[in-house]
Amino acid sequence: MLHLVGLGLADEKDITVRGLEIVKKAERVYLEAYTAILLVDKSKLEEFYGRPVIEADRELVESGSDDILAGADKTDIAFLVVGDPFGATTHTDLVLRARELGIQTNVVPNASIMSGIGCTGLQLYNFGQTVSMVFFTENWKPSSFYDKVRENAQIGLHTLVLLDIKVKEQSMENLARGRRIFEPPRYMTVAQCASQLVETEETRQEGVYHADSLAVGAARVGAPDQKIVVGTLEELSSVDLGAPLHSLVLLGRRTHDLERDYIRQFAVDEKTFDASYQKYYGHST
Ligand SMILES: C[S@@+](CC[C@H](N)C(=O)[O-])C[C@H]1O[C@@H](n2cnc3c(N)ncnc32)[C@H](O)[C@@H]1O
């Protein structure tokens, strides 16, 4: 059987008891290592599980999935996913491939950033579509997220923005020369995301949000050093929330008084918070 096991959000101890039992008895254990990272090294996991873990990069999962599935009709293979196996990462293609090969599948859920973001005090019921923000380059600044934010904003909902992760990236030169040399991993910060949001508004100029709109930055959700900061996009463009992973929430107009009171405690500056809040939020229609 193929077991997709959620690892939760922070460290090796966030795996569930059921997940750990599977990991201990599986023939091979893979760790999906490109859509999210745990806040500890792979060696910590291996020590805790008492067995080796094979890192599965995008190439292996997307092109070499039959290697992962080899033998899973007779033995147990564990495929570990940070967060929840189906939370903001769709491993449905792996499950479909397993089904095609007549291999049974089992999913062990866990906490996801999609639910963990509730630690900000914003109610999960009040979120609209989740969007992703990729690293802009000089010539490539995709803004499809902007239209989704608009749809959410039109009905007053918050938008969770998940931030780009670049692992196993090759420079143009290494790519052109076919050299398998990889750049160091990069994880987008709340500050980079906030400034790209402002840049996009400046380009599109459709008033979906503004440089003085409020957003919530969340870093290392679920870890002991989790950090939450609230401010205008302009303010967040220069905050330092430390080590990855980071996420950002654009505040929706229909913010409830309780949500406001809760997030205000994380304000970079209470005066700018109150001013922006008065200008744009707390309205139900
Ligand atoms: C593609 S999603 C993968 C989500 C994962 N499968 C889950 O269920 O949480 C990865 C993005 O979620 C966000 N994220 C994941 N874990 C996080 C954490 N502990 N704290 C803050 N953001 C997190 C980051 O923006 C990261 O780039």
Automatic annotation (TrEMBL):
<dbReference type="InterPro" id="IPR014776">
    <property type="entry name" value="4pyrrole_Mease_sub2"/>
</dbReference>
<dbReference type="Pfam" id="PF00590">
    <property type="entry name" value="TP_methylase"/>
</dbReference>
<feature type="binding site">
    <location>
        <position position="9"/>
    </location>
    <ligand>
        <name>S-adenosyl-L-methionine</name>
    </ligand>
</feature>
<feature type="binding site">
    <location>
        <position position="84"/>
    </location>
    <ligand>
        <name>S-adenosyl-L-methionine</name>
    </ligand>
</feature>
<dbReference type="GO" id="GO:0141133">
    <property type="term" value="F:diphthine methyl ester synthase activity"/>
</dbReference>
<protein>
    <recommendedName>
        <fullName>Diphthine methyl ester synthase</fullName>
        <ecNumber>2.1.1.314</ecNumber>
    </recommendedName>
</protein>
<dbReference type="InterPro" id="IPR035996">
    <property type="entry name" value="4pyrrol_Methylase_sf"/>
</dbReference>
<feature type="binding site">
    <location>
        <position position="163"/>
    </location>
    <ligand>
        <name>S-adenosyl-L-methionine</name>
    </ligand>
</feature>
<feature type="domain" description="Tetrapyrrole methylase">
    <location>
        <begin position="1"/>
        <end position="236"/>
    </location>
</feature>
<comment type="pathway">
    <text>Protein modification; peptidyl-diphthamide biosynthesis.</text>
</comment>
<dbReference type="InterPro" id="IPR004551">
    <property type="entry name" value="Dphthn_synthase"/>
</dbReference>
<keyword id="KW-0949">S-adenosyl-L-methionine</keyword>
<dbReference type="InterPro" id="IPR000878">
    <property type="entry name" value="4pyrrol_Mease"/>
</dbReference>
<feature type="binding site">
    <location>
        <position position="246"/>
    </location>
    <ligand>
        <name>S-adenosyl-L-methionine</name>
    </ligand>
</feature>
<dbReference type="InterPro" id="IPR014777">
    <property type="entry name" value="4pyrrole_Mease_sub1"/>
</dbReference>
<feature type="binding site">
    <location>
        <position position="87"/>
    </location>
    <ligand>
        <name>S-adenosyl-L-methionine</name>
    </ligand>
</feature>
<feature type="binding site">
    <location>
        <begin position="112"/>
        <end position="113"/>
    </location>
    <ligand>
        <name>S-adenosyl-L-methionine</name>
    </ligand>
</feature>
<keyword id="KW-0489">Methyltransferase</keyword>
<comment type="similarity">
    <text>Belongs to the diphthine synthase family.</text>
</comment>
<keyword id="KW-0808">Transferase</keyword>
<comment type="function">
    <text>S-adenosyl-L-methionine-dependent methyltransferase that catalyzes four methylations of the modified target histidine residue in translation elongation factor 2 (EF-2), to form an intermediate called diphthine methyl ester. The four successive methylation reactions represent the second step of diphthamide biosynthesis.</text>
</comment>
<dbReference type="GO" id="GO:0032259">
    <property type="term" value="P:methylation"/>
</dbReference>
<feature type="binding site">
    <location>
        <position position="221"/>
    </location>
    <ligand>
        <name>S-adenosyl-L-methionine</name>
    </ligand>
</feature>
<dbReference type="GO" id="GO:0017183">
    <property type="term" value="P:protein histidyl modification to diphthamide"/>
</dbReference>
